[in-house]
Amino acid sequence: MAPNSKPVSFVAKRDEESAERTEMVHPSSAQRLANPSPLAMGGFATTLLTVSLAMVGFRGVSTQTIFVGNLCFVACVALLISAQWEMVRGNTFSYTVLSAFGLFYGGYGATMIPALGIVSAYGGYTPEYYNALGLFVLVWAVFNIFFLIASVSFNIVYICIFLTVELCFALDASSYFALADGNLATSAALMKAAGVFGFLAGLLGFYTVAHYLCQDVVPFDIPMGDTSSILRRYRKTNKE
């Protein structure tokens, strides 16, 4: 239990006839909580990198089933837990992004679990299955556009993360649609391209982890390319 958990108040007398009541209030809970971003971005980056390496066929690996653990636990659980901390800290953008990607990772991982019978519901890996999977990813690409637009208010690294994720989603969905149409070569090329952009997004995620950890434990910062000041100047110019 945190010491002195209740706010402390005292009265300071200016003279005998009047008094000024002053409250000493502890910093808000948001200020006392640890930063959840390194864990969230670490789970995001670790999972996306491993899946992306399979997408490009690194060392002959193309089946992603082994990464269900990463998708459903490392990413899904870590991002959802971190999201609740961001909500307490009052960060709407971070809460929404982490919750959304945590749920996406968990949902994507669930499609690979045989016991859930998702593939068998389509009669195996049929064109309908690949079209459905393509739609699943495509709608998330649309959702991610809102994050990309909002990231302009933060920094260049965030913009690049959401941009590369957007390209990864779009190309991945296109790959599944091509596979459903029987265009195997086109599908393979699109999947590799999607994997490249996913890999870049993962590297940027690790860069973000380094930024947050350095903020906390070393006396220097790793730059993120702040864009908030540019946006503030733009808004100020428009008002004038």
Key features of this structure:
240 residues; mainly alpha; two-stranded antiparallel ribbon; 9 helices; 68% helix; 5% strand; disordered N terminus
Plain-language structure description:
The chain has helices at 29-32, 37-55, 68-89, 92-110, 118-121, 127-151, 156-180, 184-217, 228-239; strands at 8-13, 19-24. Strands 1-2 form a two-stranded antiparallel sheet. Strand 1 and strand 2 (19-24) form a beta hairpin. With 240 residues, the chain is mainly alpha-helical. The radius of gyration is 23 Å and the shape is globular. The chain has nine helices and two strands. Helix content is 68%, strand content 5%. The longest helix has 34 residues, at 184-217. Helix 2 (37-55) runs antiparallel to helix 3, helix 3 runs antiparallel to helix 4 and helix 7 (156-180) packs antiparallel against helix 8.
Counting copies of identical and different chains, the oligomeric state is single chain
Model regions low in confidence, pLDDT < 50 over at least 5 residues: 1-27
For the biggest β-sheet, the strand order reads 1-2
Instruction: Summarize the amount of helix as a percent range.
Output: 55-70%
**What's the end-to-end separation, in Å?**
51 Å
SS elements, strand count: 2
The shape is globular
* Contiguous helical run count: 9
| Secondary structure category | mainly alpha
Instruction: Please state the average pLDDT score.
Output: 85
Q: What pattern of helices and strands is seen along the backbone? A: EEHHHHHHHHH
In terms of DSSP E residues, the strand content is 5-15%
Largest sheet at a glance? 2 strands, antiparallel
The gyration radius over C-alpha positions equals 23 Å
